[in-house]
Amino acid sequence: MNNKGQVTVFISMVLVVLMIFIPAVIHGINVQCANTKAVTLFRTAESGVKADYNRYIFDEYHLLLIDKDYYGKGEGMIEELIDSSLRANLGDAFTIESVELAGVTSLMDDDLLEFRNEISEYFVYGALDSAIDKVSEYIEGDFGMSDSDIDEMKKKTGGYDGKETEGGTSAPSDEDDEETVQKKMSYQEAKKKDPRKSVSLWAKLGIGNLIKPDSLLFSDTVLNQKELPSYGHTGLFSSPNIDTDFNSFNNLRSYLEKEKLTGGKLINNAELLCYADKLFSSAVTKKNSGEVLRLEKEYLIAGHDTDIENYNFVVNELLAMKFVPNLVYLLNDSEKMSEIEAVASAIAILVPPAEPVIEYLITACWAYAESVVDVYRLLRGNKVTLIKTKDTWKTSLDHLSDFALAKNDDSDALGLSYDQYLIVLMALTPNSVAYRMLDVIEENTVHAGYEGFSMKNAITEFRVNACISYGSNEFYFMESAGF
Fold this sequence. Notes:
Number of strands: 4
Helix content: 40-55%
Number of helices: 18
Low-confidence stretches: 164-172
Radius of gyration: 36 Å
Order of helices and strands: HHEHEHHHHHHHHHHHHHHHEE
């Protein structure tokens, strides 16, 4: 009987413990389930915000981002959307105590690090457009004049600038002897062959207008640059300064001594440059019909507020890019240099020390004229080699003043296209190009109907803090969501 009493007491105690423990366990399971449900629906709410990415930018530019300001509705809109989603899905047993936006990662953070990362993700493990590789083959290292070439020019000219060569143009007088009269007549004949005056006149009239294709139309848009993402992040405009009067050797030499682009800059920014090449329009390549600017790549390079200014800037840049290689080719072509020497010798017949200076100035003039023809051809969709050969040289000294460019409207078999030359120009200032891409994307997005959109509000990740109560239990969450 005593043993049976002890068993009864023991069983009773076990039952009491179970009656206390099981509800506690059930309560704990309910709380855990509630926590799991809350965190799952919290993440779902964040995913709902992510799903509201800017579809136009994704379709056109392959960038995943959302507007933290929700097109003028304010940053609080993200909090409201998450709060509304939680209230709709959690049920009456839960209370949303707070939802707060704790931070964001902007597309423009860390000097466009996020933007560059998204561009990298656009390309599959670096499978870049072959254009970069092809361009790089042409411009490994410097393509300017070597120091030895410039030293040779200095040696031949002996520091003589040649500006006084305009002397000796007067008509023969009765006091002139027969030899002097013959020299002056030879001088006058040579001056007719000297292309510098005609080519200089082209430049003063505006090369851009002279070589512009009739089919090329400019946008009427004038950008408000102070409102653009790039404002304050890009440098001042600078344009190459070729002395197109071709009457000062010192000016020519100073220009040739400037540093030139190297191929390494292309490789280091290959993804950025390929992205710009694929997705933005130019004077030759049309990408889509919804652009605010028609010459987008030209804007990426120049940064002016109108198409026409950007066009003229890029034309001058291309002329500068082509000028030095063309000059180097001429200096190494003995046949063409013989033609130049004959004209220079006749012009300098009254001032012999000026002959080498005049020779180099006429050479520079011819190289510049060839560059004009090169850009003319590029603008019409033809390819032009960076380094000339006898077969790819297009102009002749006797016909430079004719401006007969249409005859040279053809492609070089191994040449680069207009857009490939623009890749080289963009490689000069890749950081400015990246910021100006955001300008173009923003302007086109607003034009497409997304009023109030600003790249300054474009984010790729956001962090949210939330407090959710379930009965007497409170759950605190801090979650990040991004692309």
